[in-house]
Amino acid sequence: MGAKVESLCSPNLPNPMTRADLIAHIRAQSSMLCVGLDPERTRLPEPLKDHPDALFAFNKAIIDATAQHCVAYKPNLAFYEAEGLAGWEALSRTIAYIRSAYPKHFAIADAKRGDIGNTARMYAEAFFTRLDFDALTVAPYMGSDSVRPFLEYPGKWAVVLGLTSNPGALDFEELELAKGHALFLEVMRAVSQWGNSDNTLFVVGATRAGRMAEIRGAFPEHFFLVPGIGAQGGNLQEVLDAGATDFGGLLINASRSILYASSGSDFAQAASEEARKLKEGMRGYTGS
Amino acid sequence: MGAKVESLCSPNLPNPMTRADLIAHIRAQSSMLCVGLDPERTRLPEPLKDHPDALFAFNKAIIDATAQHCVAYKPNLAFYEAEGLAGWEALSRTIAYIRSAYPKHFAIADAKRGDIGNTARMYAEAFFTRLDFDALTVAPYMGSDSVRPFLEYPGKWAVVLGLTSNPGALDFEELELAKGHALFLEVMRAVSQWGNSDNTLFVVGATRAGRMAEIRGAFPEHFFLVPGIGAQGGNLQEVLDAGATDFGGLLINASRSILYASSGSDFAQAASEEARKLKEGMRGYTGS
User: pLDDT tens across B201-252, in order?
Assistant: First the structure.
């Protein structure tokens, strides 16, 4: 893990994660799997439904069951904010647990923040300093001053939306600009100038596998965070064939297919098995 | 206030706010001022710096000092998230206080959320049901399924980014599309089809006053939320001349210029005076 300093891994201090760290971790784990931690109270397994601290208990069980098969975790903020104060507390405990138990795993706050400069700096403070995430997903609509503040934290990453996995990606992201290419490509080109492959990932949806090869050709050095495998219908093999590189190059997310693999008392074991299968599917693509 | 049912105004029940309610409130107050509640710990006035519940105490003082001069409040989530759990608690107490003390004031969560359908629904749950905001700012990059869920709550509003007030608006929002108009206009046209002027506002920055008349011409019935007056340099008179309508049509936001009008023990009085001056500047434009 090169320059990574383990003693910095306390919940309230920055925990630098370099590109070399990430590449080494992917090789060591033989996996590019990112587990999305999106706990929905109504979908929690039976044994946890009446647990006083259900969200964190669920996350901890899922993390312990999947850590050997993945390299990253990605809590989606909406699922915590929907629970109010208790949700925010569950989020804080979850990132602290990842930091202490699995300090080499890459932790992404899926918050899709984007706002003017002084506000963006407050979000960076919230997610990089206070909560010690490695990375934050960022919505690019408002342009440079809404993205750049997230690129100023050494060892922290902005994960900027490029071409997303949802049907609505057709509405604006895929629109052709007068200058002759799609909006999402313009966004990715601009953002790749503001930052670099050491502090920026791009979101490229698995459901857009048909465009993945073109996008990889344009951005050969960047890691892509790939949502859309599983519940959203993206195909793992197509994503790997089009997007993987000699350094791995992908963090492939799965959320619901792992979290809710079983609703019974075997939920953690079922999640582990689902994660293991996804990892197996990545064999041979995790860098050389 | 027409069909507004005051008994629904508890913190955990929806508090419907119709377009007619908003128009009536603007007329009654002779104001279109929205006060941005963006408390920064390092900028709090001296008397509150050591207060055990400083953020809420500050907000409450600002709200009480400005309520007679404004029609809306807009907490920016970043400033609460940067404070962790205590910040989320201050936000919860702030919206509950607005609801109980000033139930006719329009409450906007400035969160700029935007994500796929199942996630967007969780954000709607967080801000419309659990926290009982009237409106939520929404980032449109991901398209229809990231916006539509916010339009399905009767009496609640999506405030969708159109043309923002920051320098970065030039990077993508103002880009010309192959079909011959700017991206932000395409966004506004599409969103105005998904929703209507009873459940959608648009963000149109005060620093874009030169384009305000064109935008108003294209969207004559929508309310615009206008940031950028004050610290960002937008001109109030230009905004009013180009954007006001016979129903008012604007919510004009000021944050830092009000919140930090004084750093001494007279901060609330100074905030009140600043809000009063802005309200005076809107005389004759608040509908007829």
Answer: 999 999 988 899 999 999 999 999 999 997 788 899 999 999 999 999 999 9
Paired with A157 in beta bridges are A135
Residue B288, domain member (yes or no): no
Residue closest to A250 by CA, chosen among A210, A206, A208: A206
Residue pair A261/A58 in contact (Cβ under 8 Å)? The answer is no
Q: Which pLDDT score is estimated for A209?
A: 79
**Burial level of A263, CB count in 10 A (0-12/13-18/19+)?**
middle
3-state secondary structure B206-275: HHHHHHHHHHHHHCCCCEEEECCECCCCECHHHHHHHHCECCECEEEEECHHHHCCCCCCCHHHHHHHHH
Residue B176 lies in a domain: yes
When CB atoms are compared, the residue of A79, A83, A171 closest to B144 is A171
A230 domain residue, yes or no: yes
Our count of domains for chain B comes to 1
Judged by CB atoms closer than 8 Å, whether chains meet at B141 and A141 is answered as yes
pLDDT recorded at residue B14: 57
pLDDT at B77 over 50: yes
Q: A94-114 pLDDT, tens per residue?
A: 999 999 999 999 999 999 999
Return d(Cα B37, Cα B274) in angstroms, integer.
14
Measured CA to CA, the distance from residue A237 to residue A27 in angstroms comes to 19
SS3 B5: coil
Per the CB < 8 A criterion, the answer to whether A78 and B122 are in contact is: yes
Q: Which residues of chain A lie closer than 8 angstroms to B145, CB-CB?
A: 166-168
| Complex ipTM value | 0.92
Give start and end residues of each alpha helix (H) in A197-286. 209-218, 236-243, 256-259, 267-281
pLDDT of A9 > 70? The answer is no
What CATH number is attached to the domain comprising A93?
A: 3.20.20.70
A54 inside domain: yes
Give pLDDT, residue A14.
57
pLDDT value of position B173:
98
The pLDDT mean for chain A works out to 93
The Cα of B254 is separated from the nearest Cα of chain A by a number of Å equal to 14
Q: Which domain holds residue B161?
A: 6-281
CA A56 to chain B, closest CA, distance in angstroms equals 15
Give the residue on B whose Cα is nearest the Cα of A114. Answer: B112
E strands in B106-195? 106-113, 135-138, 157-163
Q: What are phi and psi of B55, to 5 degrees?
A: -65, -45
> In Å, how far from its chain's centre is CA B272?
18
pLDDT at residue A8 is higher than 50: no
Tell me how many helices (H) and strands (E) chain B has: 11, 8
Task: Report pLDDT for B288.
Answer: 73
